[in-house]
Amino acid sequence: MSALRYPADGVLFDLDGTLLDTIADLAEGANRMLAELGRPRRSLAEIHSFVGKGFPNLVRRCLTEDASATEAEIEAALPVFRRHYGAVNGSHTRIYPGVLDTLEILRAQGRRLAVVTNKAEAFTFPLLERMGLVAYFGAVVAGDTLPVKKPDPAMLFHGCELLGVAANRSVMIGDSANDALAARAAGMPVLLVSYGYSEGMPVDSIDCDGLLSTALEALDRLQPL
Ligand SMILES: O=C(O)COP(=O)(O)O
Ligand SMILES: [Mg+2]
Fold first, then answer.
1. Does the beta carbon of 191 lie inside 6 Å of ligand 1?
2. Which of 95, 170, 173, 204 is the most exposed place for a label (fewest CB within 10 A)?
3. Is the model's pLDDT at 16 over the cut of 80?
4. Residue 204 designated active-site
5. Among residues 14, 21, 179, 209, which one is catalytic?
6. pLDDT tens per residue, range 81-108
7. Active site annotated at which positions (predicted)?
8. Does the C-beta of 63 come closer than 6 Å to ligand 1?
9. Are the CB atoms for 171 and 11 separated by under 8 Å?
């Protein structure tokens, strides 16, 4: 693996599985939804593999993996999940080790920081607030900010535009193929944390520019400003 350093006026962060360990709350929200719908619980491991393409996909997979549901049932389940997850969002979420120090250092270096997440705005903004992270970020692009989600690169370009940085002088830090593919399509280097959620794929099988065991390791991969 190369240890190239990348120009990084901007650093774009994925949220679930990269900055925040949200899986306990996502599982609680999903299982409360399943209980209300009279369906069996899902294990933490199953939920873990369903996270990455936004909550509508999580709901769909909860209802259709080794089970069946009509489109109308999936549609009707969305507000049920929204209500339950909204009630627990943040209660068992924790900031991953190294994240706060990394954000502090990047900010002190004068870099511009954004969150680019497939999590919906209605969950993202209160969660960033609750976890005390809002002040670090000059922009937040959430899963329903645009008509498309990652792996579409439009979210990354939008984040760069809001920050006022060039995409070719920015770096994406994420945890899944959605982040890696979006960054590749945007022509942006991408570093993946190895502790996150990658939809059941081994993270080292995903094409990227390096794996990080904590966010702090990203610091060595960025050119000084
Ligand atoms: O909400 C999801 O499914 C994933 O969100 P993320 O893009 O922050 O990992
Ligand atoms: Mg993620």
1. no
2. 204
3. yes
4. no
5. 14
6. 999 999 999 999 999 999 999 999 999 9
7. 14
8. no
9. yes
Supply the DSSP string of the chain, one letter for each residue. -----B--SEEEE--BTTTEE-HHHHHHHHHHHHHHTT-----HHHHHHHTTS-HHHHHHHHHHTTS---HHHHHHHHHHHHHHHHHHTTTT-EEPTTHHHHHHHHHHTT-EEEEE-SS-HHHHHHHHHHTT-GGG-SEEE-TTTSS--TTSTHHHHHHHHHHT--GGGEEEEESSHHHHHHHHHHT--EEEESSS--TTS-GGGS--S-EESSGGGGGGGB---
> Residue 54 CA: which ligand 1 atom is closest?
3
Name the pLDDT band for 2 (thresholds 50, 70, 90). low
pLDDT digits (tens, 9 = 90+) for 171-192: 999 999 999 999 999 999 999 9
d(CA 178, CA 187): 14
Name the residue of 12, 51, 96, 146 to mutate for ligand 1: max ligand atoms within 8 A of Cβ: 51
- Report CA(157)–ligand 1 centroid distance (Å): 17
- Here the ipTM equals 0.99
pTM of model > 0.95: yes
- Work out which ligand 1 atom sits closest to the CA atom of 178: 7
Residues of each annotated binding site for Mg(2+)? 14, 16, 175
56-67 confidence digits (pLDDT tens) = 999 999 999 999
